[in-house]
Amino acid sequence: AGCHGYTWNPIIQKSEARRSGAAALERELLEEYCFGRQQLVELCGYASAVAVTKAFPLPSLSRKQRTVLVVCGPEQNGAVGLACARHLRVFEYQPSVFSPARPADPLHRDLTTQCEKMDIPFLSFLPAEVRLIDDAYGLVVDAVLGPGVRPAEAGGPCARALTTMKRLSIPLVSLDVPSGWDAQAGGDVEDALQPDVLVSLAAPKSCARRFSGRHHFVAGRFVPDEVRRKFALRLPEYSGTDCVAAL
C-alpha cells in the first residue's frame, strides 16, 4: 500500500502484468516518494477536470452542453472520475455520476460522500436507449476501466455501460486510456470506445499512439523530475501554472 494511505482493489494487481510500465511508475510514486493513493487520485481528478475545461470551455457552451455524465468504474480510474466530477462542479459545470458497480473500499466511499455533499446527482441506472443520454447531457467522461483492466474482470455492469457508451453521439472524454483498450496495443477499431478527448494520467500509455480524437492532454506535472528521467518519460512543457499540456 506504499508509505501510507488506502489499500486497493485486487483488480489492480491482476492487471499489473499487462500494464507493467504504468504499474512501475505508480509503485515508484507510492513507495519511494510516499505519495498517497488519495493524493494521486486527487491530482489526477483535478487535472482531468481542467482538461475538460480546455477542450470544452464553459463560455462556449449552452446550458445543456454544460451537463456532464461521469461514468465511474470500481477501481482507480473510477476514483479519479469521482474527483473529476467534484472539480467540474467547482468549475460551474453540471456533472452527474453513474457508477455501474459501486465498490465498498474507503476511498470510493469518501469520494462518493464528497460528491453527494456537493449535490452531484448519482444515477441509479444508465438508460439503454442512447438517445436519452444524448438528449440529457453535453458530454460523457469515461472513467470506467484503467490500463490493462478488461471489461470481463470489472464485471457485467461495467461491460453493459461500455456497450451503451460506444453508441453515443455526444463527445466522449476518456481518462488515462479509453476503457477496454489494451494499454500497449490499443483497441479494436470496430469494437472499442473512440473518444473525442484523451487525458493521459502521469504519462501517455503506448496505446495513445492509436488515439485519433480531437484533443490529447497529458496530466503529469506532479511527476518529479527524477522519476521522469528514471522512466525516460518524454513529457511536454507545461505553460505557466497549468497542470495539463496539450499533445
Mean pLDDT level: 88
Strand order of the largest sheet: 2-1-3-4-5-6-7
Low-confidence stretches: 7-19
What distance separates the N and C termini?
32 Å
Pfam families: YjeF_N (PF03853)
Subunit structure: Interacts with APOA1. Binds to HDL.
GO cellular component, one term: mitochondrion
Domain YjeF N-terminal: 22-235
What does the model show?
InterPro entries: YjeF_N_dom, YjeF_N_dom_sf, YJEFN_prot_NAXE-like. Interacts with APOA1. Binds to HDL. The chain is of the alpha/beta class and 247 residues long. The protein is built from 9 helices and 7 strands; from the N terminus they run αααβαβααβααβββαβ. Strands 2-1-3-4-5-6-7 form a 7-stranded mixed sheet, covered by helices on one side. Helix 4 (76-90) links the parallel strand 1 (67-72) and strand 2. Helix 3 (37-55) crosses helix 4 and helix 4 packs parallel to helix 5. Residues 7-19 have low confidence and may be disordered.
